Amino acid sequence: MQLLIVHHDPEMGDALVQMVKNYTRHDCNLVSNDAEATDWARRHQHCDLLLTQLEAEGINGLALGSALSEIFSGLQVLFFPNYAADERRHEITDTKVFPEPISGDDLVGAIERAEQAPNDAPDLFHVVDVLQMCCLSRCNGAVQMVKEGKNGLVFLRNGRIVHAEANTARGDDALCEIVGWKYVEFAYERSVRPPLETIDAPWDKILIDVINRDKEQHEPQRQSV
User: Considering the domain boundaries, does residue 165 fall inside one?
Assistant: First the structure.
């Protein structure tokens, strides 16, 4: 595979490149910002995996991932957010979001999973992984989630989940439905504002409640004797 790492800190960037070289057999390049990444993309015929900071000087990882996906078909993306690993409320199996300190084993595992994905596979993220990343990063705007023709929107204000829509559902019910989709493609739009606010609980409590509700709905019903 061809990998591209986008990281503003040259020391951390070099360490990530060295990790890839030491533990995988993939080609890997390093650039320090979105402009350099775009220039790199113009000069290369393919890129299979983008590993990028979510936000840093000269870096908007969400926008960059979207832009490079238009150039490189089947591109997979991993994110390095700017909050610490111990701030996470939920541990996600097979995560694609790696706050510092980065687990080398988990990162190499994510690279291996990307290698195993078919060339035309969609770039899927766990819903909770995306929402946790956006909330801890204090994002504003809307996250669109798509799975097999189903479409949902989650609205954020300074890292709070304030509204959700999915098909005919609104608020908590919509968020519960979206989380139940598990793995989705997503897009983020910073400029979108919520049409109304239907959710006011802390985001981590909301997700815990929604995850528990989803588990209860999918548990097999006990048969009475």
Answer: yes
- Its sign, for the CA torsion 180, 159, 154, 38, is negative
Instruction: In whole angstroms, give the CA distance from residue 38 to residue 213.
Output: 43
For residue 142, the enclosing domain spans 125-218
Q: What is the DSSP letter of 224?
A: P
Amino acid code (one letter) for 170:
R
Distance between start and end Cα atoms, the chain = 56
Q: Please list, residue by residue across 197-224, b when 16 or more beta carbons sit within 10 angstroms of its beta carbon and e when fewer do.
A: ebbeeebbebbeebbebbeeeeeeeeee
SS3 call for 155: strand
Q: pLDDT tens across 104-141, in order?
A: 999 999 999 999 998 889 999 999 999 999 999 999 99
Regarding whether 106 and 9 lie in a shared domain, the answer is: yes
d(CA 193, CA 121): 31
What pTM value is reported for the model?
0.93
Helical packing angle, 61-71 and 34-42, nearest 10°: 10
> How far is C-alpha 83 from the geometric centre of its chain's CA atoms?
14
- Per DSSP, the residues of 59-105 read EEHHHHHHHHHHHSTT-EEEEE-SSBGGG-S---TT-SB-PBSP-HH
